[in-house]
Amino acid sequence: MAPEVTSQILEALDQTNASILSADAFPSVDFTAMKSALDRLGSRSMIIYRQLDREEATLTPEAEGIAAEGSHEAKVFEAVRQAVDGLKIADLPGIVGKESAKVGQGKAFKEGWIKKDKDLLRPATDNIQDTSREQLQIIQQTRTHPEPKVLTDLRKRKLITMQKVISFEIKKGPNYAAELVKEETDLTADMIATQRGAWKTVKLKAYNFKAMGATTPSGALHPLNKVRHEFRQIFFEMGFEEMPTNKYNTQLHHLHIHR
User: How far is the first Cα of the chain from the last one, in angstroms, to the nearest whole number?
Assistant: First the structure.
């Protein structure tokens, strides 16, 4: 996957002299494949990139319904407005649904959109502005909102969730080329022996003197030494101490206990 992403990045940069955003240019490429391709190109100075961290807002299923059909309070107002002689409070859940009636009625009263006339609901204004729907539509399109307070309020109402998104800003580097040339890791005898002198034109991979060496597996205690160590620990836990003596060696242990 990484070689394909590498080619896609070079092709995208070849079409512009400006920087590109990975989230916009390669929305379907996962983070691991993108980072691997960027590191590969960055190590050759073909590109320069920097990581961008941001939070994006995502609508919950309830919020998606509000963005498409209107807020609960707007539904309540519309139902009341269409009832010429007023709408009975008991009939409201059957028209807009129990959830919209429960949530929207209080908000519609608070906004001054409806008023109560005994057991009837009547409109208190001719026109309304469904702010909640407008805010959610902006977030649906841009994944954010210019006013942080709006995001905080909608998050408290459980209409949006915030998630961290990592993307990259990418631009051409000093060694940029439209195609990634394979780099050889070793100078071979065949390169030197050829009449054309392939070693003169071949592109060699830069040696990384800071690379960590291969991990060397460490040794392990002999099973008898393990058993001896466990016996010593048992005696120590019982209160014995090891006596300092010139005769002490790995075969002879002197243990004594203070009484």
Answer: 72
Question: Which residues are 167's β-sheet partners?
Answer: 52
Task: Name the pairing type of β-strands 87-88 and 241-242.
Answer: unpaired
Question: Using H for helix, E for strand and C for coil, what is the string for 95-133?
Answer: HHCHHHHHHHHHHHHHHCCEEEECCEEEECCCCCCCHHH
- How many whole angstroms separate alpha carbon 221 and alpha carbon 2? 43
Q: For residues 71 and 62, what is the distance between their CA atoms, to the nearest angstrom?
A: 10
Q: What is the pTM of this model?
A: 0.57
Q: Which amino acid is at 169?
A: E
Whether the pLDDT of residue 237 is over 70: the answer is: yes
Which tokens sit at 243? 């006596």
Separation of alpha carbons 75 and 62, rounded Å: 14
- pLDDT tens for 87-104 read 999 999 999 999 899 999
Task: Say what the pLDDT of residue 49 is.
Answer: 94
Sign of the alpha-carbon dihedral angle for 57, 61, 64, 66: negative
